[in-house]
Specification:
Length: 169
């Protein structure tokens, strides 16, 4: 871990909070090149109803536009949740040098949890992976979000049941 990793992860957490304020799963990403933030983004799947609007992909797109190339060879990507297979593929193809993430993803993590696509030597590019940076803060944000979401769904289900019972009377 580099000394600036926590600093940039805190910026990714700020991005995640923007997603949460929109009712999105709170995942944020920041791309740093030569010590400068060149792109940042947050999850927008619910807003766009588009499966590929993950924080990492949106940040990679912005970073490529900023540098004028699809190659992000010396870039570092900070993300609050371990990248999924789709995002890991984009990271490999854009040649990001380092990937630093907060919380592990036991359901889709492809940077060490389910598999490690990013360091697989069979690909023509590998990214260095650093996991667990501000892991507790990143994980708690996600856990709290999903706990609240389940609570809201349960309340909605109860409300619908009550409404149906009233209509039948």
């Amino acid at each position: 871990m580099k000394k600036n990793d926590e600093f940039y992860m805190k910026l990714a957490i700020e991005e995640a909070k923007k997603a949460e304020s929109l009712g999105e799963v709170p995942i944020g990403a920041v791309i740093v090149l030569n010590g400068e933030v060149i792109a940042s983004a947050y999850n927008l799947r619910e807003t766009t109803q588009n499966a590929i609007t993950h924080a990492e992909l949106l940040a990679i797109e912005k970073a490529c536009q900023k540098v004028g190339s699809w190659r992000l060879e010396e870039a570092e990507l900070y993300v609050t949740l371990e990248p999924c297979p789709m995002c890991s593929g984009a990271i490999i193809l854009s040649r990001v040098e380092r990937v630093i993430y907060g919380a592990k993803d036991p359901k889709a993590g492809c940077a060490g949890t389910l598999m490690n696509l990013l360091e697989d030597s069979r690909f023509n590019h590998q990214s260095e992976v650093v996991s667990g940076v501000l892991e507790e803060e990143c994980g708690n944000m996600l856990s709290n979000f999903f706990r609240e979401l389940r609570k809201k769904k349960k309340e909605e289900k109860k409300r619908m049941k009550e409404q149906t019972a009233e209509e039948e009377e």
